[in-house]
Amino acid sequence: MILKKGASQTVIGLIFGCYAVCNLIGSLVLGRYIVQIGAKFMLIAGLFVSSGCTIMFGLLDRVPSGPAFIALCFIVRSIDAVGFAGAMTSSFAMTAKIFPDNVATVLGSLEIFTGLGLILGPPVGGWFYQSFGYEVPFMLLGCLLLVMVPFNIYVLPSIEADPSKDSFFHLLGHVKVVLICYAIFTLSAGLGFLDATLSLFAINKFNLSPGYVGLIMLGLSLPYCLASPLMGYITDKYASSRMVFMVTGAVITASGFCLLGPAPFLNISGPLWLLVVMLGLIGFSLGMTAIPTFPEIITYAYDQGFEEGLSTLGMVSGLFGAFWSLGMFYGPTVGGLITQHLSFEWAATVQGGLALQQYNQDYSCTHKTE
Question: Which parts of the chain span the membrane according to its record (predicted)?
Fold first, then answer.
């Protein structure tokens, strides 16, 4: 639709890229001032803003082509990103506050629904688009988000807290926190890279239809759904295992990306079954690595003397969201450039190199901690 409205591929990339940038900034700012704003209000307001922007994005088809349409795309996407940042930052912080002893278990369980969204979103949205046109999928999704506003007003508790004097700079002054943030960055970069490039690669190499490509993506989403609650339960019960899972997950992720293409220097063929198996390994390893990161930063922050409460939880949530957004900007952008100028195989190998670097850093961090 955006192409038909006169936007170039570069402008389309910037429209989607601005979402990640605004999400990054919003996560940091809202995470720092979560106590002053109020966690419950931030979540409800974020849902309301995101629902409104989703509906508005569906209505942009009625805007005349040209600069006005492009400007509105930037505005709506940017505001939506800030709303989403508020909702996610506050939801992570409130989860950690309400379930302090089961943070990973609860987050891992919630990631089941993230996986279901990844599985059902493309086929269901595509069916509504083909059956009813461009506007209907956005309208339905926006209305679903809007329904959640009164539900959360009724269900969620209000959390009172005092502002902390600690800052993001203080938190990032610790090497372990920086290394875990790098792990978060590589995870989201990998997902962003696959989201932007895998479909076209599979269609061109294996002559698959878009429907079959959607089935292939199940190989990534289903293992992630299964791994997340399991890893959450184990890492809550055995907190010392978090870094072990992060290191192991990084090795599996690096191997999966190198064999996904596979890497040109391996000089092996890349049949379809290998692609599906590697996607499954990557999906499972992402669950191993991602779920322990958030509770591990919280535990380390408390051990370093940060105040136990909503203020610190908000900063950790904001930091998580910021580095996740940074990866979601880097993955499609850099991965797309490497794919365009070299090949998907080399781009996947570079992504595997990022995960391998994460392994080296996490391994060193584990031994220093011991």
Answer: 12-34, 41-60, 66-90, 102-124, 136-156, 168-191, 211-231, 243-266, 272-298, 310-330
**Between vectors from CA 22 to CA 80 and to CA 29, what angle results, nearest 5°?**
105
* CA-wise closest residue to 83 among 151, 27, 34: 27
How many angstroms separate the CA atoms of 110 and 229, rounded?
Answer: 8
Longest Cα separation, the chain: 62
Q: What is the pLDDT of residues 284-314, one digit of tens each?
A: 888 888 888 888 888 888 888 888 888 888 8
Closest CA to 259 of 123, 351, 332: 351
Nearest to 257 by CA among 342, 334, 191, 179: 191
How far is Cα 253 from Cα 259, in angstroms, rounded to an integer? 10
**28 burial type by CB count under 10 A (0-12 exposed, 13-18 middle, 19+ buried):** buried
Q: What's at 282, amino acid-wise?
A: I
Quote the pTM value.
Answer: 0.85
Q: How many CA atoms lie within 13 A of 195 on its CB side?
A: 19
Q: Compute the C-alpha angle 219/87/47, nearest 5°.
A: 100
Cα–Cα distance for residue pair 302/97, rounded to 1 Å: 13
b/e map 221-248, b = 16+ CB within 10 Å: bbbbbbbbbebbbbbbeeeeebbbbbbb
**Distances, alpha carbon 124 to alpha carbons 86, 144, 209, in Å:** 27, 14, 17
**Are the C-beta atoms of residues 273 and 292 closer than 8 Å to each other?**
no
Strand, helix or coil for residue 244: helix
For residue range 308-331, list pLDDT tens digits in order.
888 888 888 999 889 999 888 888
State how far the alpha carbon of 60 is from the alpha carbons of 2, 5, 28, 134, 194, in Å. Answer: 9, 10, 29, 10, 27
Cis link prior to 262 (omega < 30° from 0)? yes
Distance CA 275, CA 266 (A): 15
Which segments within 62-201 are labelled E, that is strand? Answer: none
82 neighbors 42 (Cβ within 8 angstroms): no
